[in-house]
Model the fold of this input.
Amino acid sequence: MSPGSATQAVRRSLDRIAATDARVNAFTALLAERATARAQRLDREGAEGPLAGVPFAVKNLFDIAGLTTLAGSKIERGAPPAAQDALLLRRLEAAGAVLVGALNMDEYAYGFTTENTHHGATRNPHDLARISGGSSGGSAAAVAADQVPLSLGSDTNGSIRVPAGLCGVFGLKPTFGRLPRTGSYPFVASLDHLGPMARSVRLLAQAYDAMQGPDAADPACVPRPVEPTAGTLDRGGEGLRVGVLQGWFTEQAGDAARAAVQRVAQALGATQPVHWPEVERARAAAFLITNAEGAALHLSDLRTRAQDFEPLSRDRFLAGALLPAAWITQAQRLRRWFAREVAASFRGVDLVLAPATPCTAPPIGTEWLEIAGQRLPARASMGLLTQPVSCIGLPVVTVPVWGCDPAAPHLPIGVQLIAPPWREAWCLRAARALEQLGVAQAPVARIDTPTPAALAAAGAPDVR
Amino acid sequence: MDFDQYAEQAAAAVALPLAPGHRPGVVLYLRLAAAMAAQVDGLALGRDDEAATVFVPVAPEDLPETAA
Done:
């Protein structure tokens, strides 16, 4: 690290946020004073390491000492401030990174669009009239807009992979149980994952490596040793057998999504079709577990102040509180069955490909989508292709591919690189190979100002 | 199944008041959840298909310092 570089990096990040965030609306809190002081200290101490002086920001469901953890809600505004940073923030800062702020999200992570009624929609930096995806929309948009080079999000049913793909950045959802969730606001403990987003695969891997390691405070966190990945990236896709998921993953994908997978498959030499059984039922299981467990977490507030919930998810939460126990237990049993079946399918292949979303980012306010000849509700359908994968906790890197949608050639779409449990390194190596080949990349968004007519046509809510 | 009636009875069972304005949405999502449950129920599961929820015992040393 050169003298003064942490201070310069943080200054640059804060300046970029000041210049762009009125249009993007990614940030809900800035920590300018804390970040500047910390960067100055790092410079004084001559901090070293791949993350030294790297500014980062986190979805506002991570605890930040002195701030109230909002989890995208209005309800939590009255909660006391967090006493300390979430564990993953502490680990990143111990490696030299500098936290600069908190980021917008769907309320309580229940959504795929970050059309947050309380804080305004986070706009896609590559087309401000469109959604950023969600629920970690602020995390993806902040990286795409070059406000920070690195961010953290959470992924229960697709909330890292969907926005990373729609905003054109790299995202990693590690294996369920790999990274501890200590100090983050839960959504569905059975399915919640945390992970990073970045504009380069190397930084993604370095951040992931710095966050690895068990923690007994998270009962889902598996006590595995740290398995560093950054040093393996240069091996690329060498020796990896890559397949392409069929069935549900092509049937629920539009032309742009299928084209993106085809491009990645060609680059990685993937020819083998792979069939997972009963994917639609697995997606249904994830839906039910999410609905019931999420609602149970908020039952007290649903009883006393339902009107204060996000209108886009309130009725889903209320319904989730009423589901029969047998539905949920059967869903958890099916999940185990599906995990075994998919494990068997990995005997012949190391990595499988699938689109991250059925289509590129729709305009803000879109209610219905036409996907492969079906009319589907837009908000829930953005997770159709990610939900069956997180249901069984597999590690995934989402890579952004461009120019696949003739109707919107300026927009990216994500492709999921999916590995067996604990093989994050394979996903990252393949992602690095695609980055080097230029098949996947994460350019800085130009942040054009949309015309008022474009915003009105999109039904976009006013920001702030 | 009468989802409106189910919503009323199930809400009473968990002491959850349902505002009239929220009820149509709740019924809509109950219908959707029922369709998902039918999907799940359509697969025959066996004795060894244990639920994917495992309890982890908590030892005193696992507690955070503030709770010890």
In short: The mean pLDDT of chain B is 91. The two ends of chain B are 49 Å apart (CA to CA). Chain B touches chain A at residues 6-7, 10-11, 14-19, 22, 25-30, 32-33, 35-37, 39-43, 45, 49-53, 56, 58, 61-62, 64, 66 (CB under 8 Å).
